[in-house]
C-alpha cells in the first residue's frame, strides 16, 4: 500500500501545513477538496472515490495505414454515447505537444482530423477548439509547425493557446516539504462546460514510465507566461507552472497526477500508436512503427489497454495504479471489453527510458 504510506506522511505533516493554510480556505481552493482531503483525511477520500468504480468498460483498438481513418473507426462504436455526453458543451481537443519543433513528440494533425471527422458524423462540430499549452515554447508556433492550421481551413474549429486564456489556482504537493503549492491551471480544461478529448500519443516517459491520455490532460493544464521558452531567448522574469506539478521527484509527480485526475481527466480518450515513441521519451525517444489506435470513454481503461499494447508492466506506472486503487475507472483487463483488434495480436515491447529504475522509487516506502 505505497499510496497509504505516502498519505500517512502527508497526514503527519498536517500541523505544519496548517500554519500556512487554514483548513477552510485550503478545502475551498484545492482540487474540489481533493488535495486537502488527501492531506487532512485520506480515509474519507478513499471511501468517496471507491464508490465510483465501474463494473466494466469498452475500449476500441484499430489498425491500418491511415491515421485519420484509424482514429475515426476507433471512435465509431461510441457515437451515440459521445453525442449524448457532449450535449451542448464545448468540445476541447487536447493534443500532446510537449515540444513545438519535434514531430515525434507531438500529436499528428491527421489524428486530430480523424477526431474532427467523427465529431462531424455525430453532429457535434459546431463548438470545437484545439487547445494546448506546449512545454518548451509558444504553443501556436507548434500548431503551425505541425500543420494544424490546415484543419481550420477545412473545419469550423479554433486553435487556442491555453497560456493566453484565463486560469484558476489549485494546489499540488512537493515531496521536499509535503506542503501545498499554488499552481496556475487552465480554466478551459477545468470548466464543467468543456468536454475534454485527450488526443495523445503512445510514448515512454522519463518520470512516470509512460505518458498517455490522462497525463496529457493533467500536464496541459499548468500554464506558462508568454515569452517563456526552454532556450536562452526566454523573456526575463517569465516562468512555467508545469515544473510545480512535477512535485520535485518521482513520488511527487505520480501523486500529483493522481490527485489532479479527480478534477482534470479526459471524457474521451484517443491514443495514437501509429508511430509511438520508445526509449528516452517523452522528448528524446526513438520511433516505434506500431500502427495502432486506442479509444474509449473510460480514460483509465483506455490507458490500461495502451500500456498493455506497449508491453509495459502496468504495476510500474505509479499514477495509474493510484487511480486504479481508488476506483477512478476500470484497470482490470478482465473487465475491459475490447472492440476490434485483439491486444495480443498487436503488442510490442517498448524500450523504457534509461532512468526507469530510478523512476520506480515510488514503489518503495517513504523513508
| Secondary-structure content class | alpha/beta
* Computed CA radius of gyration, to the nearest angstrom: 19 Å
Annotation, overall tally of beta strands: 11
Beta fraction = 15-25%
CATH topology: Rossmann fold
Silhouette: globular
Residue stretches low in confidence (pLDDT < 50, at least 5 long) are: 1-53
Integer tally of domains = 1
CATH class: Alpha Beta
End-to-end separation? 14 Å
Element string (H = helix, E = strand): HHHHHEHHEHEHHEEEHEEHHHEEHHEH
Largest sheet features: 9 strands, mixed
Helical percentage = 25-40%
- The helix tally amounts to 17
CATH architecture label: 3-Layer(aba) Sandwich
Mind explaining what this structure looks like?
With 367 residues, the protein is α/β, with parallel strands linked by helices. The strands form 2 sheets. Strands 1, 2, 3, 4, 7, 8, 9, 10 and 11 form a 9-stranded mixed sheet that branches. Strands 5-6 form a two-stranded antiparallel sheet. Strand 7 and strand 8 form a beta hairpin. Helix 4 crosses helix 5 and helix 6 packs parallel to helix 8. It is globular and about 50 Å long. The N terminus is likely disordered.
